[in-house]
Amino acid sequence: MGTMPVLSRRTFIFGSAAVAGGVVFGSYGQAQDNPASPGTTNPLAVDLGPDSVAFNPWVEISPEKITLIAQHADIGQGIGSIQPVMIAEELDLELDQFEIRFAGPSPAYFNTGFAHEIAPFMAADQSLEAEKGRAAALEWLRQSGLQMTGGSSAIPDTYEKLRAAGAVARETLKAAAARRSGAAVADIRTEAGHVILPNGTRIPYIALSAEAAKIPPVTDVKLRDPSQWRLIGKSMERLDIRAKVTGEIVFGIDRKMDGMVYAAVKLNPNKGQPIRSYDASKAQSMPGVQ
Amino acid sequence: MFDIVVNGSRHQVDVVPEMPLLWVLRDELGITSPKYGCGIALCGACTVQVDGEAVRSCQARMADVAGKAITTIEGVGNGKLHPVQEAWIEHQVAQCGYCQTGQMIQAISLLKTHPKPTDEDINEVMSGNLCRCGTYERIRVAIHAAAEKIGGK
User: Fold this and answer.
1) Is residue A71 one of the residues assigned to a domain?
2) A110 lies in which domain range?
3) Is the pLDDT of residue A175 over 50?
4) How far apart, in whole angstroms, are the C-alpha atoms of residue B21 and residue A16?
5) CA torsion A242→A95→A104→B26, rounded to 10°?
């Protein structure tokens, strides 16, 4: 961590405000400066296809499909399923209406959930000192762009920001539908991957991607009350359980790339000793060895 | 050149006689559901059926299984899910899932010899299949559920 910038008073205050006001989420502009991590852009904007939109680093909609990004890279503990579910809750998606992709490396995916672990205060401590300590920790995480999975931090990190990511996408799609139809946003609703106009017309989200890409994301969003939740808190089938039970799921060892070769390491059996010479002729005479 | 029948399909593979069946399946035929875990028959992740019997494919020489009927998880249900697979879904057994194809093949083999297995039967037959996630409790529950499904048919 030798390159860690020194915390200035200004960034510290920003961090405090972010925690106290709960405005950590939501304001990611497409291909614009990423307020969550200044100087970085929305990583999804880089390779975005034509007529596609990336409302934030977690939701991408093309004319063909909806892709939700899982920034916590784990396939064993269920967080690969719950991350998209938190987006789908606010975005009004059914569980078979999207693909899931793990995030690439980007400071936009810094782990906000670890601030509570780093700051030396008990979880129940609500004192000003504790809140300031957590805010400083959050700011450190933001500036370092620490993207990590672990320590039971996935839900603390994503619980608000992924629901906000879904809400931002939903409200922006509604705004795009309002522009197209002339209807008021307040009279437009969403359901199961569709925007529904006041006259009952159902527009699939994917049919709005090009228009949604042309307007700035609507970031003034309110998260739904838990009493309205359809998905969160309910028992569900893990989204990858069938692929695991049929053997279709692809693990790292199953991945094959064009021109890929396998390497085997042979170490000097004497620990710490250098190589004086080696003879690869026997190995090279084996079939398939290059 | 060896003849190998996998999930009912006959293949010819040009490999050395001592190549483990696991590598024939994975590298020569592209069937990746049997997993490489330890390579020395201690973990069970590579388990497949050879003539209906659960076998550690990492230690089965190609020359010894040539011409025999090999079944991987893709072939256990004849195009549908096997009752063991159904039970594995209903009881959400898999965490990471890496060992689970081997677990299910072993469980199918267990249920052939013990249609109504006791917990002791399960412990004895399944103890060679390791799960780093620790899904053993769910495996046991799912095996009992699968036994009921099969018995009820």
Assistant:
1) yes
2) 9-246
3) yes
4) 60
5) 20
Q: What is the dihedral angle through the alpha carbons of A34, A157, A232, A30, rounded to the nearest 10 degrees?
A: 10
Question: Do the domain assignments include residue A288?
Answer: no
Q: Is A241 on the interface with B (CB under 8 A)?
A: yes
What is the total count of domains within chain A?
A: 1
**A232 in a domain, yes or no?**
yes
CATH number for the domain including A105? 3.30.365.10
pLDDT tens-place string over residues A15-55: 333 333 333 333 444 334 444 444 457 889 888 899 999 99
**Residue-range domains of chain B with CATH:** 2-75 (3.10.20.30), 83-151 (1.10.150.120)
Percent of chain A with pLDDT over 70: 86
- Report if residue A27 sits inside a domain: yes
Which residues 48-87 of chain A have a CB within 8 Å of chain B? 75-78
Model pLDDT for residues B94-147, shown as the tens digit of each residue: 999 999 999 999 999 999 999 999 999 999 999 999 999 999 999 999 999 999
CB contact under 8 A, B81 and A246: yes
DSSP A260: -
SS3 state of residue A70: strand
**Closest chain A C-alpha to B18 CA, distance in angstroms:** 13
| Nearest CB to B96; choose among A75, A243, A254 | A75
Strand partners of residue B69: B5
